[in-house]
Amino acid sequence: MSRLTDKNSVIAKEIIARYPRQKSALIPLLHLAQEQTGYISREAMVHLGELVGVTSAEVYGTATFYEMFRFEPIGKYLVNICGTMSCALLGAHELMHHAEKRLGVKAGGTTQDGMFTLAHAECQAACTEAPCLQVNYRYRLRVSTTDLDKLIDDLEAGKLSEEIPAHGVLAKVRQHIAPDRAVGAVAPELVSEAPAWLNGKAAL
Amino acid sequence: MVKRQGSVMSATYAHAPGFVAGDRPKIVTSRFEFADSFTLERYLATNGYKGLRAALSRPANEIHDDVKSATVLGRGGAGFPAGTKWGLTPQQVWPKYLVVNGDESEPGTYKDRLLMERDPHQLIEGCLIACYAAGLSQCFLYIRGEMALAQERVAAALNEAYAAGYVGKNILGSNFSVDIILHWGAGAYVVGEETALIESLEGNRGMPRLKPPFFPAVNGLYGQPTIVNNVETLANLPWLLCNGVAAYTAVGTKTSPGTRMVAVSGHVKRPGVFEIINGTTTFRDLIFGEEFCGGIRDDKQLKAFVPGGGSAPWFTADQLDLPFEASQVGPAGSMLGSGAVIVMDETTDIPAAALTLTHFYAHESCGKCTPCREGGTWLERILRRIVDGDGTDADLQQLLEVGAMICPGDFPHAANAQLGLTAVPFPYKMTTICFVGPSAFAPVHSALTLFRSEFESRVTKRVTIPVTAVSTAKTVMPVGAH
């Protein structure tokens, strides 16, 4: 059951077809597996290996390089508190201490009810809005300890489920290229000449 | 919201947190005032895709020449001119690819995310112009994994642009055809390095490749010539094509034309992201100017600032009057990098501040090069025990010795009148493939060079303790997958 569903397998094949080499689709497909289950199971990695034509060990090799991929279940909400310089200068460590107390877990831990995983994160590209955090990769900016308490309350009460999907879901919009608009993957072995528009003339 | 700050106007928008508009030329942020700036409808109503139409109305080589003569500098970190970069690919090898670097993650940097979230069509149009001008047959737009909203906005914009005939087969009915493929990462800073980005795009662990032979322009994605350009760099192209080279070079200076996006964070009154005039705006303008940050918080004294992202050697008040001009900042001992200024006031605990950055780079080391993998970790451990009050008098020298194994010779640093220091120009020598290793040392070196007394007062033990395999730190931060 942790292999990709039929519906996700169709999405996976559409993604794979865009690349000149199938393995290029691996990271987007790992995200798809994580979206389906909240983490990446061994069965999913075997399936992805079959889909892109590499061994499951190669899939595992790639997956373990990247911090966003999880290999066991975590909380429904992953709270990533930034601790890099701009945030640290404006109270990130205090925010983390407060979060640890409020949730009753240390950074890296998951609450017993499976709702929250608290993590120390590195720079999230919101440095002017320090200290910042992400919940399932959705931003909260200039976060005070009071803001954090309110955020946890709201998440527990289910008030933010519209805005913040469960862990694993990133973009809620997928790219879709209609077949009649697609150029198709341009593989090195398919092309040996300069593109048509490089003929010294204007294209329009 | 439009506010008057002294004699100048500046505006902020709830839909673009952090961004501060001013009475300055807007090349890449012209649509940020609109809440719906990411839609095709708004884009078309505000000169959208006119640059593409202008480009396709002329031969591709002329467009490449325009980008060369406009000296559009790379906005990712190295500052290399985009037109020159495009010209480095071999003439007889096809196909060639465009890879867009939207993996923004340099500490202090916040601009590409805004450009992707607020104006995705501008980026798409920039990609199309680059592909047309440089003869690139497929484009891969690599967005940082943690940026869910940017991925969503770019995906939606691509779907709109495909449907409207701006991307894909026979663009605007011409013989120009190119797909733009949205790709996204999964959390690894090093992937911002262009050869690591290509490895990651091939589905591998994101480790940098050795140059030579893997110069992307010659041997990049799938072994083919590949141009890797930063998001902001490409976002400049639609305006350039709409308004012409003369209008572009009329802003900024001859060697640094146009504008650039700069994020100023840390201990200032009004942190923000600004589109500034390149080459002339100084660090003093940015940190103290009323139209920018308005000075240090609580009117405290400036202690130091990072001028160009976490990798950059630090400056102090002595360098405030330097402009955003690479030819002046480099000889002064640092770099402009990714347009990120981090300000520290007099209350800052310097060793602890340096530790946050050294921890970052040690954590983000991919592990390929020994000096970075081991050295970065050593630097972090030694620095942490100093911060924790367990340092020894031998530690300060050991920090410099470990650093010298990553970066042999004199490490770049700024001049300082009070300390009697003269500048050592940027860049450094390095024993690693990429800059992650040197970046772990940069904050340590800057902090130790400029504020040695703060380290000396933290060193309590007068005995030498060897670096242990297991950290004895009191303030352990969890280290992730690599």
Number of strands of chain B: 11
Helical residues, percent of chain A: 25-40%
Fourth CATH level, the homologous superfamily of the domain at 77-156 in chain A: Glutaredoxin
What's the main sheet of chain B like?
A: 4 strands, parallel
**What structural class do helix, strand and pairing data of chain B support?**
alpha/beta
Average pLDDT taken over every residue of chain B: 94
How are strands sequenced across the largest beta sheet of chain A? 2-1-3-4
Annotation field: number of helices of chain B: 18
Tell me the name of the CATH class of the largest domain in chain B: Alpha Beta
Radius of gyration of chain A: 21 Å
The name of the CATH topology of the largest domain in chain B is Rossmann fold
User: Using CB atoms under 8 Å apart, which protein chain pair has the greatest interface?
Assistant: A-B, 81 and 99 residues
CATH architecture of the largest domain in chain B: 3-Layer(aba) Sandwich
Shape of chain B: globular
- Assembly state: heterodimer
- Looking at the overall shape, the CATH architecture of the domain at 77-156 in chain A is 3-Layer(aba) Sandwich
Query: Remind me, CATH topology of the domain at 77-156 in chain A?
Result: Glutaredoxin
How big is the Rg of chain B? 23 Å
What does the model show?
- The complex is a heterodimer of chains A (204) and B (482).
- With 204 residues, chain A is of the alpha+beta class.
- Among the domains of chain A are: 6-63, Arc Repressor Mutant, subunit A (Orthogonal Bundle); 77-156, Glutaredoxin.
- Chain A is built from 7 helices and 4 strands, in the order H-H-H-H-E-H-H-E-E-E-H.
- Chain A has helices at 6-16, 26-37, 42-52, 56-63, 85-88, 92-103, 145-156, and strands spanning 77-82, 116-121, 133-135, 138-140.
- In chain A, a hairpin with a 2-residue loop joins strand 3 and strand 4.
- Chain A is globular.
- In chain B, helix 15 (370-387) packs antiparallel against helix 16 and helix 15 (370-387) runs parallel beside helix 17 (436-450).
- The radius of gyration of chain B is 23 Å and the shape is globular.
- Chain B is built from 18 helices and 11 strands.
- Chain B has helices at residues 40-45, 50-56, 60-69, 82-86, 112-118, 120-134, 148-163, 194-201, 231-235, 237-243, 245-249, 283-288, 326-329, 350-364, 370-387, 393-406, 436-450, 452-458, and strands at 2-5, 8-12, 20-22, 97-102, 138-143, 179-184, 226-230, 259-266, 272-277, 302-306, 340-345.
- In chain B, the strands form 3 sheets. In chain B, strands 6-5-4-7 form a 4-stranded parallel beta sheet, sandwiched between helices. A 4-stranded mixed beta sheet of chain B has the order 9-8-11-10, with no helix packed on it. Chain B has a 3-stranded antiparallel beta sheet with strand order 1-2-3, with no helix packed on it.
- The longest helix of chain B is centred in the C-terminal third of the chain and has 18 residues, at 370-387.
- Mean pLDDT of chain B is 94; it is low at 464-482.
- Chain B has 3 domains: 28-249, NADH-ubiquinone oxidoreductase 51kDa subunit (Rossmann fold, 3-Layer(aba) Sandwich), CATH 3.40.50.11540; 259-345, Ubiquitin-like (UB roll); 350-458, Up-down Bundle (de novo design (two linked rop proteins)), CATH 1.20.1440.
- In chain B, 62% of the residues are buried.
- Chain B is of the alpha/beta class.
- The chains are: A alpha+beta (204), B alpha/beta (482).
- At the A-B interface, helix 2 and helix 5 of A face helix 7, strand 6, strand 8, strand 11 and helix 14 of B.
